[in-house]
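**Backbone geometry record:**
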Amino acid sequence: MGGVAAMSKMNLADPNGYLEIADIWLVGQTITLASTTPVYYIDFEVWWADGRHPIGLGVYLTDDNHHPVQPMIASAITTWESWQKIKQRVRTRFSFRDFTMEAGVEYFFLMRDKMSHFAVNSRIYIRKYDNIFPDGNLFYSDDYGDTWTSYPNDDWIFAICGAPELPPPPPDPPIKNVATLDLEQIVTSTGMRIIVTTNVPCHLYCYWTATEPEKHLIPILTRGTQLHTQLKMCFVDWNENEQEEAGDTLIHTFIKEPWAHCETRWLTFRAQVMGSWVAPFTERMSPPEQWSRFHEPWGVHLTENNAWRKWWDASEPQIIIADNTCKIINFG
C-alpha cells in the first residue's frame, strides 16, 4: 500500500493542543496533494466525551478564501469502539470507499459532532505551529461554519493513506546494437537462401565479397583497458543486397543466386532500426557440405550434356555399357 505526504510521520508526530468539537463547533483542514491519489483513510486523534457520538466528516472543494463550498463530494464517519476508553486520547480514522484526490486541487475536510456544546465535548487533537501538511491550513468555526478562523501552521490530520498514481515509465532507450540469434543456409538449385534471425526488429542489408577482407589489428581503449588485438576487417569489391521482407522484422531473408559451388564468400550485415543505422556484424560463409557431390571426380570431366565422362588413357582399362551389357576393354 502506497503512502502520501507525511505517511512516514504517522507514528512519530504527537499532538500539542486540541480543539473541542460539538454541534456548532466545527473543525476543518485544507489539503492539497502533489499527485492524484485514491484515498483509503485519514488518521486523526480524538478524546471521546461521555456521549460518544459518531463524528462525521465531509469533503468539499474550496473558494478563493479556502472555505468549503457545496456540494459535499465525499463523506465518512467514525464511531467509538468497544475497546476504546473514554476520556483518553486515541488514534482513529475516517475510511473511504471511493474517493480520489486530484493532483493540485485543494480539498476541505470538515469535521462535525452532534453533541450539544453545552455538554462535555469531545476533543480533536492538533499540531500547533508544526503542521505535518505545510500546504494546508486548519480552520475552526464556532457558529455552524458561517465564519472561519484560520490557523495556517496547525493541522489535525496526522496521516493520509492512499495509493498515489505512479508516474509513467520512461521511454525505452534507443536501440544501438543488433545481434544475430540464428543464421540458416538453405541450398537452392543455383545458389543459396540465407535466413537471419535478430534479437530486435530491424531492416537488414547484406554486403558480401568473394575477396577475403583485409584484417588489421588496431589498438583500442575500451573501458580504460588498452586492447592491442582489436580486429578490424576491411571489405573490398563488395556487393549489396537488401532483405526480401518490407519494414523492420525479426526474420530476414536473402537470396544469393547464382553462387558458384566452389566460391567462399564473406558477408557483413548492417541494420537499420526505424530508419537509423546501427552496428554491423560479419560472417564468413563457405559453400555448404551438400554441394560436395558436384565436385568433379578425379580423372573425369563434365560434358556439355551434363554427363560425367572418363578421360581417355590407353594405359588404363575402359568400361563401356552397350546393349544392357557392361564390358571391360583395353586391359592395358
Confidence is low (pLDDT under 50) at residues 1-12, 288-299. DSSP finds no helices and 25 strands in the chain. The first strand starts at residue 17 and ends at 21. The chain has three domains: 7-162, 180-292, 300-329.
